Description:
By secondary structure, the protein is an all-alpha fold. Helices cover 72% and strands 0% of the residues. It is built from 10 helices and no strands. Helix 1 packs across helix 7 and helix 9 packs antiparallel against helix 10. The chain is elongated and about 65 Å long.
Amino acid sequence: ERMSLIAKESSNLFAQKGFKGTTTKEIARKAGISEAIIFKYFSKKEALYSAIIDLRCNDTRGQSRLMKALEGKGGREIFREVARFLITEHQRDPSFLRLLTFSALEEHNLSDIFIKTKGMELIDFLAGHIKHLINKRLLRKVDPIIAARAFMGMVLHYSISQEIYGLKKYFKMSNDYVIDTFVDIFFNGMERRRIC
């Protein structure tokens, strides 16, 4: 389908050259179509950005692949799955990390659209799970949103430093070890302590 092809080629070029360095003429040439076709399907940049996010984050039925992977999971397993999904996804194809970085640095709307949709969806989901664990008296009382962002901060910083900054040349540990360590650090800091 042409919309998916345009989104794919746009995404690849933006990730390689940034938004300011990419023209619709280049996108059209890479997709094997005319510029007019791009404007026919995407009259506004925001529509193209949303299509790129959908292409990168959703399955063929339009559901978030990450949220689908979290179905039926609970406790620490939710955090383990979030970390596993993101770290392996970024290793498999770091171009989406580059794309979001270019978007944020060049002040394009793609990163803002991503945060408002996929980013906040995940933060809200994790915060809801943290709140549930707090209510069950398994975790100490903290702001669930800040706690969710703290966990995501560990995972995303790891991916960015490994894949964008090139730390993977020097830091070679198994994903399972890294993921388990992150989950342990998070839960060890969050668990309720009994006062003797």
